[in-house]
Amino acid sequence: MTPTPNPYARPRPGSSHRTWWYFFVGIGAVGVGLLPWLATGLRLPLQNLWAIDTLPEDMPRVLLPFSQYFLAQILSMVILGLGVAGLAVRAAPAAARGTASAYAAIGAFATIACAAIQTAAVVRDGLGATMAANIYFVGVLVVIALGVVLGLVALFLVARAGRPGALVGLTLAALSVELWLYALTMVLGAGAAAPVVPAVLAVARWLPAILAAAALAWCGVGTARQAVAWAVSLLLLWLVPALLDGLSYAAGSRVFAGNLQEMASAGASVVFGSLGGPGALLPAVLALAVGIAGVFAVRVPRAAASTGTQGG
After folding, report:
1. Considering the domain boundaries, does residue 3 fall inside one?
2. Which CB contacts under 8 angstroms, 24+ apart, belong to 153-157?
3. Would you say residue 6 lies in a domain?
């Protein structure tokens, strides 16, 4: 006898017909990450090693800003987009997160891969046939690949890990917000009133620390894993901006163009200078202070409620 289906039965949280939608969530999250570039009109930046002289308005359109001057922006856009996908998956029921994160990662990766392939094909076709052009081409592709790897790490940590692991992923995504918001503001704020852009940029400067502080408070503290996650998160807030400074300086300097040893040396000097510079520790200190305050703000009411319940 064939059993009669129960019309009132709810589908399991991990069922495929609910989680496959996260494939499109991954695509949409990458679109959010690439928004600052999409808003520019997708015109390829001028290339120092382009085979023929071309005016800016005559450069081809590409899906990624392929240029040594946009490396930090590429990293921020890719990592932020994948971090947004991780947040979307985290909001799903716990039983669905495994499948949902896989679908989101596939959708996001496929979108970035298509964008990278289209961009690489256009750029490779226009670059001159020189060793310097080949080094430049491969170098930018390596940075794009690095952004995808870090972004996928952030996605899976945010989506599937416990709170300590998710804290590290959230911090990676938070660190991308400053450059992302800066790039978007410079595009959309071009015709805005003069005070608007500086105000947004001033907020963007401290937004990663504030977002990381919120993640610290959410993670909580009290176990060894939580303490390690706090330390890693604060270390990232200190190290990553300096690393991006060094990368941007080394790659963007035409003086060292083509000389990998000199580029590495110059970049390392900038990194160490930034780490020891005035204010380098301020974002981490701010995040630590606000995070601790947030932990107490959550714990005190809970302790009071627990005491009241026991007393009653």
Report:
1. no
2. 154/79, 154/82, 154/83, 154/86, 155/82, 155/83, 155/85, 155/86, 155/89, 155/101, 155/104, 155/105, 155/108, 156/86, 156/101, 156/105, 157/86
3. no
Q: What is the pLDDT of residue 15?
A: 47
Span of 3-12, 150-159, 208-217, 274-283 with lowest mean pLDDT:
3-12
The number of distinct structural domains making up the chain is 1
Residue of 93, 110, 126, 135 lying closest to 25 (CA atoms): 110
Domain holding 269, by residue range, is: 16-311
State the angle between helix axes of 97-126 and 71-90 in degrees (0 to 180), rounded to the nearest 10: 160
Classify residue 103 as left (phi > 0), alpha (psi -120 to 50) or beta. Answer: alpha
Measured CA to CA, the distance from residue 112 to residue 123 in angstroms comes to 16
The half-sphere exposure of 277 on its side-chain side, counting CA atoms within 13 A, is 15
Classify residue 198 as exposed, middle or buried by CB count within 10 Å of its CB (0-12, 13-18, 19+): exposed
Residue 185 lies in a domain: yes
Mean pLDDT over all residues of the chain?
87
61 bridge partner residues: 43
Both structure tokens of 94 = 């716990």
What's the rounded Cα separation, in Å, for the pair 65 and 84?
A: 20
Strand-pair partners of 43: 61
Provide the CA 77 distance to its chain's centre, in angstroms: 6
Radius of gyration of the chain (CA): 23
Is residue 219 in a domain? yes
The pTM assigned to this predicted structure is 0.88
pLDDT at 176: 95
How many Å apart are CA 230 and CA 81, to the nearest integer? 23
Contact criterion met (CB below 8 Å) for 68 and 133: no
